[in-house]
Amino acid sequence: MVYAGELPLRVALAVSILILLLLIVYPIVLLITLGSAQLASALSVGSFIDAIEVTVIMSTLSALVAIVMGTPLAYLLARYEFRFKQILDSIIDIPIMVPHIIVGIMIVLAFASRYNIIFNTLNLIAHKLMLIDAALSRYGLLHALLSPVLNALVNLLTGITGIRFVNTLWGAVAAVAFLSSTYYIRVVEAAISMVNPEMEIVARTLGASPSRVFISITLPKVWKAMANGALLSWARSVSEAGALFIVAYSIYFNGNYIYPASVYIYESYVGVGLANAVKYSAALLIIVLIIFVAYRVALGIRRGG
Amino acid sequence: MRLINIELRIGSFKLGPLSTSMANRTYNVIMGPTGSGKSTLLKVIAGAYRPNSGSVIVDGVDVTNKPPELRGIAYVPQGYALFDHMTVYGNIEYGLKVRGMPKSIRAREVYRIAEDLGIVNLLNRKVNGLSGGESQKVALARALIVRPRVLLLDEPMSMMDVSTRESLIPTLREIPRKYDTVVIHVTHDRDEAYALADKVTIINNGQLIEEGEPEEVFTRPKRLFTAQFVGFTNIIPAKAVKTQGGSMVHIGDLTLHSSECVEGNVYVCIRPEWFNVTNEGGLNVIEGTVLDVERGRMGYRVRVSAGGVTFNAVVQSKLSSGDAVKLSIPPDMVHLIPAY
Predict the structure, then answer these.
(1) Which whole number is the average pLDDT over B7-19?
(2) Touching check for B85 and chain A: CB below 8 Å?
(3) E strand or H helix at B243
(4) A206/B48 touch (CB, cutoff 8 Å), yes or no
């Protein structure tokens, strides 16, 4: 036990604060100081505003994916012991460990290459359905009855397999959702495990259905953590560059190809130079911080949810 | 309320097979040491655990495969699990609200039950600042308002000081008849069980050891474990021989008479408070030396060595170690449990 004020603690603290200042505070302060003077100039560039817009939309969609995918998983992990729990736990941690460029490669491989087993299978099924439809054309009434159904199915399947992933919002969201959901799941899992499970049992015995229990007992206690987790995962998506380099270097949106914000800044750095990149970096950072603070104030989230 | 051959395995712990029944309008106490499975049994009845086999019957209906909300059972867990994001009113109202009852009826019912339990003054309070006794009453009100067929109480007094505990006993005692329900109360506290129960069930290692009226279980236990658990601190193996009107046992150099008629190997069981200090000789008088004395709530706990055996007794006169003492025990208070 070291008492506050004792020498070893003071030395250790001094070292850690020095590193903190040097590594984190100093670069941020410098960037914002240099860049904030040019904030207005950065925000007057239409292509940069487009980049921020598409990035915010992409990140928000990705946060929604995290909520839909992550909430039941977080509940499962927080509440139950089951076989393969360790495996599920590890799968959820994978995105943190995989290099982001590789995530981009995986998304392209899985959804935008000839190895896309899912789309290939769906295409095959659609093809078979069309053959069945053609074969049925000899049987008047049966064909008249079944043909609309078959056609609707074929349209649905080809509609799905028609989704493009490279340089689209779909691909960008898939890549950043892959990388950011983990943060949401872990925050929400921790929050749910803090809710006394006996409360849920009591609520059930008092007549509430499982969904009613979640909405009336669990949710009021974890929604702030959910919002906090969604914000974390949102911020993680805004900052993504590596995976987007592969999947969506530019995103086709509203009839134009638009760079995601991080790619935009990379382009400005490589193409124009440091001063230019600093201008946009500071602008993006300030906007993200404003959204961050406004969101937290609006929801009354303190640290740790 | 009946349990038929309930069996549940959780990891290496096995509950049951266990069968019992509990009559309506009675207060039933399940007693057992920590880890004996008594809370798990409550959760099986509540529907939080599904048994591997066996049935839970409530009011003649098999509810084994029904979810908790359709069983007609209310549950007050250890620590009460009050909904701490709601007021006291919100907690009590909850069961009616999820049933879709109109607001005016809910308000009437909440006030009625709060008045019954003397907690009207708490209704607008947050639950976080409540005392142990207040929390328990709120939890009871929340459970009773749905008029359960069975009310489950898991260690309801464990978070209270002694005086609050004693003041709540009459409130608990009248619940089965007042609310027309079966109360099943789990505890490891024998005073609590003795004060409250119409029927006591002893559980150990997931198995039902013994059940019966408290007078029976506490004074004439049938099983050795029960005797140990309900406070027989004198349990001595001996051989019994039948005599006219009872039996005779030899312990060390002593001979004791019991009015129970048993033959063969037995455990002689005597509660420490059943001994009397006497000056006279006669039947069942033990002459010995005080080994040590400890002050207790019910009197002085003394250990007395006599005839090569050590007895534990609770006496009212102050003795010191080394004193010679005569303890008498009436033959009808020498309880014999056959040893197998």
Answers:
(1) 90
(2) yes
(3) strand B234-243
(4) no
How close B99 comes to chain A (CA, Å)?
7
pLDDT the model gives residue B158 = 84
Which residues lie below 8 Å from residue A285, measured CB to CB, with a gap of 6+? A28, A31, A32, A35
Could you give the CA distance from residue B186 to residue B43 in angstroms, rounded to a whole number?
11
Q: Which domain holds residue A264?
A: 29-89+98-112+164-299
**Would A287 be classed as within a structural domain?**
yes
B75 interaction partners in chain A (CB closer than 8 Å): 201-202, 205
What phi and psi values does residue A196 have, to the nearest 5 degrees? -60, 115
Q: In chain B, which residues have their Cβ closer than 8 Å to the Cβ of A221?
A: 85
- pLDDT tens sequence across B274-285: 999 988 888 899
Residue B215 pLDDT greater than 50, yes or no: yes
CATH classification for the domain delimited by B2-229, as one of 2.30.330.10, 3.40.50.300, 3.40.50.720, 3.90.180.10? 3.40.50.300
Q: Which residues of chain A neighbour B43 with C-beta distances below 8 Å?
A: 201
The enclosing domain of A213 has a CATH number of 1.10.3720.10
- Put simply, whether A196 touches B (Cβ < 8 Å) is yes
Blockwise average pLDDT, block size 10, chain A, 305 residues = 79 95 95 91 94 96 96 94 92 92 95 92 94 86 87 93 92 94 95 95 95 95 94 94 95 93 96 94 93 88 51
Q: Which of B69, B79, B83 sits opposite A204 (nearest CB)?
A: B69
Sort out which chain B residues have CB atoms less than 8 A from A195's CB and list them: none
CB A201 to CB B71 under 8 A? Answer: no
In chain B, domain spans: 2-229, 234-338
ipTM: 0.87
In a domain, A191, yes or no: yes
How many structural domains compose chain A?
1
Partners of B73 on chain A (C-beta within 8 Å) are 205
CA nearest to A55, candidates A290, A254, A240, A270? A240
In this prediction, residue A305 carries a pLDDT of 40
Q: Looking at the predicted structure, is the pLDDT value of residue B8 above 70?
A: yes
A285 located within any domain: yes
pLDDT tens digits for range B220-240: 999 999 999 998 999 999 999
Q: Is B9 on the interface with A (CB under 8 A)?
A: no
Q: Does B141 touch chain A (CB under 8 A)?
A: no
Mark yes or no for CB contact A206/B71 under 8 Å. Answer: no
Give the whole-angstrom CA distance, residue B202 versus residue B210.
5
* Rounded CA separation B98/A215 (Å): 11
Residue A159 included in any domain: no
Task: Determine the pLDDT at residue A298.
Answer: 87
Report CB contact under 8 Å: B69, A199: no
Residue A212: list chain B partners with CB under 8 A. 98
Q: Is the dihedral of CA A232, A237, A243, A247 positive or negative?
A: positive
A215 touching B (Cβ < 8 Å): no
pLDDT given at position B292: 92
Q: Which CATH number fits domain B234-338: 3.40.50.720, 3.60.140.10, 3.20.20.70, 2.40.50.100?
A: 2.40.50.100
Backbone angles phi, psi at A254, to 5 degrees: 55, 40
